[in-house]
Amino acid sequence: TAYQNALSYVRDRKQGRDVAGRKKDADVPIIDHPDIRRMLIWMKAMVDGMRSMIYTGAFWSDLALEMPDGEKKSYYMDLVDFMTPIIKAYCSDMGFKVCETAMQCLGGYGFCKDYPIEQYLRDAKIMSLYEGTNGIQSMDLMGRKLTIKDGACLKAFKNEIDTFCHTHREHPELGAQIRTLAGVAARLWEATDEMNARRKNDVLQWASYTYPALLAFGEVTVSWRLLDMAVIAYEDSLKTGKKYDFHRGKVMQASFFVDTTLPHTLAHIDTCLRNGREVLNIPDAGF
């Protein structure tokens, strides 16, 4: 809703001249400004990706509840167990950031009660606090969820990502982004092994950096969901022979998110594995 409010506002609000001089001697709708468009496409991608993540988790939950006992039921239960802290923590933190970005699109008006975004921002904050703060959720993800059932939860999640990437790695429109996701995901799987070893040998250092790991898992998951939707949208556009803006939006938001977010994911992974102990060694009086 914050994104939709921001989108409506920037289409109507006129301020500033066109940076490329395409429209002379007149203020333009601020949706024409590249920085506004950058924020819009990020919000669109994040909202669509998180929604798909939540729906996917709910679908897996339905399958786990309704299937008869057996390997398939256990597989979907493992997926739900693994995705739960990612959905709760990543989506609540990024939902807050979407509200913040929407406010930025409105400028000073976004901070005022004339528009509803300031309320959305405050309302969204509680989601990162209840049902276990997000730091606790990250420890659950990188601790118990990686190790229960001899790592079955991670193996199930890894299978979903790797299968998608293998199936579509030569996609004519999104192949480069899918191969990028495959590479980042492979690095993340390696990092989980290193984090597991650190948890056994240096639990305080491990606990200091579980949150960046959760961010990495969230970004990989959103990238996967966006690319999955984009592949479907691309195929639909081929079937109809028409390039609908809706389909183009799905493809472009996926390529934008992967190309601009997964480099940060690699940084999150490196952060998880750093050896610096400042978090632990700074004296209490040094804060």
How much is the radius of gyration in Å? 21 Å
Strand content: under 5%
Mean pLDDT rating: 94
Largest sheet: none
Terminal residue distance: 38 Å
Structural class, by secondary structure, is: mainly alpha
- Count every helix, treating DSSP H or I runs of 4 or more residues as helices: 12
Instruction: Count the beta strands.
Output: 0
Number of domains: 2
Kindly state the percentage of residues in helix.
Answer: over 70%
Helix-strand string = HHHHHHHHHHHH
Low-confidence segments: none
The shape, in one word, is globular
Topology, pairings included?
Blueprint lengths: L1 H11 L21 H33 L4 H36 L10 H9 L8 H9 L1 H4 L4 H17 L6 H27 L1 H6 L1 H31 L4 H28 L5 H4 L6
Helix pairs in contact: 1-2, 1-3, 2-3, 2-10, 2-11, 3-4, 3-5, 3-7, 3-10, 5-10, 7-8, 7-10, 8-10, 8-11, 10-11
Structural notes for this entry:
The chain has 287 residues and is mainly α. The protein is built from 12 helices and no strands.
Describe the structure concisely.
With 287 residues, the protein is mostly helical. 75% of the residues lie in helices and 0% in strands. It has 2 domains: 133 residues, Butyryl-CoA Dehydrogenase, subunit A, domain 3 (Up-down Bundle), CATH 1.20.140; 137 residues.
What labels describe this entry?
287 residues, mainly alpha, Butyryl-CoA Dehydrogenase, subunit A, domain 3, 2 domains, 12 helices
